[in-house]
Amino acid sequence: MPDPYFFGYGSLVNLATHDFPDPRPAKLKGWKRAWRHTDLRPVAFLTAIPDPESEIEGMIAHVPKNDWAALDQREWAYDRVPATNSISHTLTHDVEIAVYAVPHDRHTAPSNHHPLLLSYIDVVVQGYLRAFGQDGADRFFATTDGWDAPVVNDRAEPKYPRHQQLKPDETAFVDNRLERASVKIIQPHQQKEADDLPAYFKF
Predict the structure, then answer these.
(1) Reading across the β-sheet that carries 116-117, which strands appear in turn?
(2) What pLDDT digit, counting tens, does each position of 20-46 carry?
(3) Which three-class secondary structure state does DSSP give residue 190?
(4) pTM, 2 dp
(5) Which of 93, 103, 23, 89 is nearest to 55 (CA)?
(6) What is the DSSP secondary-structure string of 70-101?
(7) Which CATH class is domain 3-195?
(8) Whose CA is closest to 116, among 157, 156, 79, 147?
(9) What are the residue ranges spanned by the domains of the chain?
(10) Furthest-apart CA pair in the chain: how many Å?
(11) What confidence tens digit (pLDDT) does each residue in 75-93 have?
């Protein structure tokens, strides 16, 4: 029976956010990353979208005893999609690999009402910096759609439940790349006042 693995392309690349065994770099062909909002969550997150011309880097890791419960709970707004034949990796034994993606008819573009969280971006970029270096993190920015979305600066009070403490050079990298992409950064009180959503960030 093939060993079950998952392919992570966002926060799952950051190994500080989980303890699944045998993590290693891999590539997913025929998909791209995009910032999207689903009505199942209050803010926008990354999802994978089919695109025959694209290839993205990420991490695969083993799911012991085929027990997907914890990962399915973490990725509860996503569908688990078989992707074995689309993934290149260094494993030499028989595996089946899945990727989590929001169904096409369940997501829309981010907005001021449903922005990105800087604490989430920090986690993802930290993962790419540590797994793939600055060049790999730059490829993450280049191969992700949706940087025209607004980003709420919640670093002082992180709303993302698996937020991590970044080193100063990691923070500087994130800030620099967001500035290069002309990303609109707004403060939490500005977002709340604009949308009149005092309980907005409840997960």
Answers:
(1) 116-117, 151-152, 185-186
(2) 999 999 999 999 999 999 877 789 999
(3) helix
(4) 0.91
(5) 89
(6) HHHHHTTTSEEEE-GGGEE-S--S-EEEEEEE
(7) alpha beta
(8) 147
(9) 3-195
(10) 54
(11) 988 999 999 999 999 999 9
